[in-house]
């Protein structure tokens, strides 16, 4: 057996993408116009929401979601600590206060059982994430949000095409945000899109997206290139997702022989996960884990420890001079549960247990197939077999 492999890269653009980009250049209209509008229509139809609004990226989308909900100083937004920084930094962009709620150990989304205790009179929104394309316990989270009449925002940046009981991820919240960044399953370079059924919110996001409105608005528009590439990516998405799903199934089988210490994280019965990455739970303390992972990476295998929890991020624990915009939890107008608290001291046992040491990401994007996965399984066996 060879000692290394060239893992397929993602994304792989071809003639359809070249043609789409060329068409935009020839049209001489490069910023948000017809191609963006077509993509918005097609994406909203695919997801099953009334509206979709194309943006420059998902970070802008998360920011606009909060701005459209009029969230600001003195408000709290409940958010998961296991995500990319944008999921929580958007709260600071509106000068509101993040309240971190622990995750559950099945799909590593926000734990519905911990959510209710975080809700206060200051809570103005809840942001959940479907990490790596594994649906969160979204029905339970949605039920709690509805009970308290708090808008739910789905960060669906990893979950294009995932579903729960036949209903697409991105249709459970008042708003949902998808990233279309180069590495994502629907990849346009840089791009993002917000979905909603609410006409008022849609209109407000349109106004905030393109500067010139009477209230503070931004230039968060999508380019025509992204709109055109998005249409091509959307046509291929279900096929690509089916390959990711098949690869996750292969890997589940292959991992059974590797080591009881490594356990594939699977989706629940009535869910479709889309595996932006596959997650592997590390069930016991593994000596020299970093070294083993480095060996696998050097052999070409895209495996790594997952992300550090967000409540430890320096944005929430500034050690130097506070930023010029101030710290929302120190603002005299704020009197909620994070007043006089230190984010890094928060007790969040599940995220502490898993992130980053007990959860591995493994990338199974197309055109990865059985050859690569069998090679990876053999290498994993060499490193991890007890
Ligand atoms: C979960 C999640 N949310 C939001 C973002 C931000 O996406 P973008 O790069 O489109 O701003 C990312 C980026 O990786 C992400 O992983």
Structure notes:
The protein has helices spanning 15-27, 34-47, 58-68, 86-93, 112-115, 138-147, 199-209, 224-255, 289-298, 349-354, 370-384; strands at residues 51-55, 76-79, 97-100, 123-129, 152-155, 163-164, 167-168, 175-179, 192-196, 262-264, 271-272, 278-282, 303-305, 359-362. It has 386 residues and is α/β, with parallel strands linked by helices. It has a domain at 15-231: Aspartate Aminotransferase, domain 2, CATH 3.40.640. A seven-stranded mixed sheet has the order 1-9-8-5-4-2-3, with helices on both faces. The protein has a four-stranded antiparallel sheet with strand order 10-12-14-13. The longest helix is centred in the middle third of the chain and has 32 residues, at 224-255. 47% of the residues are buried. Bound molecules: pyridoxal-5'-phosphate. Pyridoxal-5'-phosphate binds next to helix 3 and helix 4.
Features:
alpha/beta, seven-stranded mixed β-sheet, 386 residues, four-stranded antiparallel β-sheet, 11 helices, globular, Aspartate Aminotransferase, domain 2, binds pyridoxal-5'-phosphate
Secondary structure elements and their pairing?
Layout: H1 15-27, H2 34-47, E1 51-55, H3 58-68, E2 76-79, H4 86-93, E3 97-100, H5 112-115, E4 123-129, H6 138-147, E5 152-155, E6 163-164, E7 167-168, E8 175-179, E9 192-196, H7 199-209, H8 224-255, E10 262-264, E11 271-272, E12 278-282, H9 289-298, E13 303-305, H10 349-354, E14 359-362, H11 370-384
Parallel strand pairs: 2-3, 2-4, 4-5, 5-8
Antiparallel strand pairs: 1-9, 6-7, 6-11, 8-9, 10-12, 12-14, 13-14
Helix pairs in contact: 1-8, 2-8, 3-4, 3-7, 8-11
Bound molecules: pyridoxal-5'-phosphate.
Pyridoxal-5'-phosphate is lined by residues 57-59, 83-84, 86-87, 129, 155, 157-158, 179, 181, 192.
